[in-house]
Automatic annotation (TrEMBL):
Keyword Glycoprotein: yes
One Pfam family named in its UniProt record: Metallophos
Protein's organism: Parasitella parasitica
GO CC annotations, alphabetized: extracellular space; fungal-type vacuole
GO biological process, one term: polyphosphate catabolic process
Name of protein: Calcineurin-like phosphoesterase domain-containing protein
GO MF terms held by the record: endopolyphosphatase activity; exopolyphosphatase activity; phosphoric diester hydrolase activity
Keyword ATP-binding listed: no
Amino acid sequence: MKTDQWYLPCLIIGSCAVAAIEPQQHRQQQVFMHQQHGIDAPLQGRYLHITDIHMDQHYLTGATIKSDCHREPKKHKHKKKKQGLLAGYWGAPGMDCDSPPRLVYHSIDSIAKEWKDKIDFIIWTGDNARHDGDALVTRTKKEIVGYNVKVADLLRSAFTLDNNRTLPIVPCIGNNDIHPHNELRGMKNNPQLLEFSEMWKDFIPEKQQKAFRKGGYFAVDVVPGLRVLSLNSLYFFGSNDVVNSCSDSTGPGARHVKWMRSQLKKARRDNVKVIIIGHVPPTVKTFKDSCLDDYIKLSTKFKDIITGHMYGHSNMDHFQVISRGFGNMARIGSEDNEQDDEDDMVQSQKDTNRFISTLRKQYKKVKKVRNAQDLVVIHVAPPMLPLFYPTFRINEYQTDNSSNQFGQWLKYTQWFTNLTYWNEQIDPITRKHLEPGFEVEYSTDKTYNMTDLTAESWLDFAQKISSKDGKDLWKTYLENMFVKTNNDWYGQSVPIETNPIYDWWNWFYDNVSNLMFS
């Protein structure tokens, strides 16, 4: 791969131009020192989490959903014949389509305008490229590289401060950010890792570049006293068949575990707190068994310095509780679906009943085992992709560096934009589509009455929402899991007569949920 110049297709619909990007012109991010944080510039105590953007340069407004929003409907002899749902201008929420570039550009720009002066850093947990669901328009390596470079440049530019310096941005590799998807080899000088190393060279500390080029992981001090470990979850991922499990001491998974252990030891010596991020969350379904076991061992051993485990990939807004002693407790809806990876959008809807039922059983079991076992709480943020409604998360943490609670996760606020509404908003004079606005969906303090987000607080919350007295709060939690879309399934450009997900949700809640609480 040439390192002096990158060529990628312009990611603007309707354009076939080629853009040249010169990495050496990127603003160098001072990753180990937050330049703002002097005597006159205290920490903001907030950071942004975005995930699963899934940009699609082939997205076409008015296209059919069954074409992955890539092709217009065929003309019918009978003009009155309904076509079904068509792709909206800003996206097709709730459908099997990825993000139109205009949604990605607008979302990143609007988030940055509102928040870049109010946050300390950004965690960005992967999957920038579209899914490979359209057999007529298959993904290419060049296209995927283009998405990754484009999103990195958008973030780099949008989050540049007035002093011409970019906020610390901490990325990780998603399973759809590589070609073919899911498969990342543990070979020496892996060309895909070298590509990421170049495009993210101002996000990764110079001293961490060797580790990243070798394994796709790195550590970075985002603010003094707070360090992020960016994991390469693909070396733990059960769907990555080209690498062995972590029980192979010579494999990339075992090397990753060794690196993770050394970094956690170093963090404890340095007296810093740690946030662990990755793309694929650690569960029985997603991780290879030995890798999950090693992950849990390290997470429990260093629980005193780890403030959170932040992931994406699984789309639904939720948390899971894992433990070496839980057995099948972490197995969420996996018994009949081992052959596919968890991020498939159709599968997410298909297995929703089982997912929710099993998740609640997991929470309910917490009360019985929390005093006898070390439990790890894993958090999955919902996507910017309009599988539901596009989202982002603002986390808050303790900034009192005189306290041993410095870095502790305090709360988060989940934001979303209702694309069903914004797809229909037209300026009456110019006839142009109005730009979507983001609004608060919920916050952990006001909605869930949580005073902080320590692991113990999440275990208390798991017990509460799985109890008989927590039925109303459980319902609220489910509404938030689907970003306010579980009762309203998206009329877009061409409405349909029935509303299947509305009927499904009423059936589910009236029948399954009542059985849970009986």
